[in-house]
Amino acid sequence: MARAFIGLGGNLGDARQTLEAAMTRLANHPDLVLTGRSAFYRTAPWGVLDQPDFVNAAVSVDTALPPHALLDVLLETERAFGRVRDGERWGPRTLDLDLLLHGATVVHDERLELPHPRMAERAFVLLPLADIDPSLEIPGQGRVANLLETLDTQGCERLS
């Protein structure tokens, strides 16, 4: 079993409800055991700025699935919620699921990069992770709490 961390985000439709439903779907998957979940955060768009704010969160799961099989579960979940991956990066989306970490596994191939690239530079990723485990170690980068101290979190609002 490995502990994996998944980032969730969306900014089309009722994004908070979509993220909640995606968390439920993941929790009900036979190969996943939900072990933690963060609060929801409203965050300013990143990359393409002319779009609605995002709602972001994270979950942790225990799984025997290898990283690529877990990625397939995440991609299928996105499709179930209407996500179409058309090549546009950082644009608006109904649901975005990112495999952030899979234990201490490091992967660099055409389908998957672990730890997720640039996660240590993004408050919208680290804030939810800190809710779950602030002492979480990102291989080769440091602890979530320490990395978060180096980032500007303005534009990230914890939702009640």
Automatic annotation (TrEMBL):
Membrane spanning residue stretches: none
EC numbers on record: 2.7.6.3
Enzyme class: transferase
Pathway(s) the chain acts in: Cofactor biosynthesis; tetrahydrofolate biosynthesis; 2-amino-4-hydroxy-6-hydroxymethyl-7,8-dihydropteridine diphosphate from 7,8-dihydroneopterin triphosphate: step 4/4
PROSITE patterns found in the cross-reference section: HPPK
NCBIfam families: folK
Xref: PANTHER family: 2-AMINO-4-HYDROXY-6-HYDROXYMETHYLDIHYDROPTERIDINE PYROPHOSPHOKINASE
Family named by the database record: Belongs to the HPPK family.
Biological function: Catalyzes the transfer of pyrophosphate from adenosine triphosphate (ATP) to 6-hydroxymethyl-7,8-dihydropterin, an enzymatic step in folate biosynthesis pathway.
Name of the protein: 2-amino-4-hydroxy-6-hydroxymethyldihydropteridine pyrophosphokinase
Organism taxonomic ancestry: Bacteria, Pseudomonadati, Pseudomonadota, Gammaproteobacteria, Lysobacterales
